[in-house]
From TrEMBL:
This protein's name: Transcriptional regulator, PadR family
InterPro entries with a match to the protein in the record: Metal_resp_DNA-bind_regulator (IPR052509), Tscrpt_reg_PadR_N (IPR005149), WH-like_DNA-bd_sf (IPR036388), WH_DNA-bd_sf (IPR036390)
Domain Transcription regulator PadR N-terminal: 33-103
Species: Clostridium fallax
Lineage: Bacteria, Bacillati, Bacillota, Clostridia, Eubacteriales
SUPFAM superfamilies: Winged helix' DNA-binding domain (SSF46785)
Length: 130
């Protein structure tokens, strides 16, 4: 009988970046402010401005995430602008009760999973470097 291989089991999706965008947007909206897509993009851009890491997001990804959140009923949107003054309209998003409940119920579990993933990566890195 063949003996099975010993394998280290690692998470397949180390970090689900889409989920990070979802929770970040819901966190900002839970503060009671309305946000628009470019503001979220600028937050990420500013956070990674001095980082050697690759920039993790595009405006398309942010707007896709906002659209997805709206489809799920977690956010609502409305257009704001002044046609008379010829100011460009922007779509502002606000959190719904359902979105707030989702955020409060799931964000801590996701953060715990990120910490576990970081611990696993730290252990594997240590194994490879020591």
């Amino acid at each position: 009988m063949a003996k099975g291989r010993n394998r280290i089991i690692a998470p397949r999706n180390v970090v689900n970046t889409k989920q990070i965008y979802i929770f970040y947007i819901l966190k900002e909206l839970a503060k009671g402010h309305s946000v628009f897509g470019n503001r979220v993009y600028e937050d990420f851009k500013n956070r990674f401005e001095d980082s050697t890491l690759p920039f993790p997001v595009s405006t398309g990804t942010i707007y896709d995430t906002l659209y997805d959140l709206e489809e799920r009923g977690y956010v609502t949107s409305h257009w704001e602008g002044d046609e008379f003054l010829n100011k460009r309209s922007k779509k502002l998003y606000s959190i719904t009760d359902r979105g707030l409940e989702y955020y409060k119920t799931h964000v801590n579990d996701y953060i715990d999973n990120l910490k576990k993933t970081k611990s696993l990566i730290d252990a594997l890195t240590s194994m490879l470097t020591k």
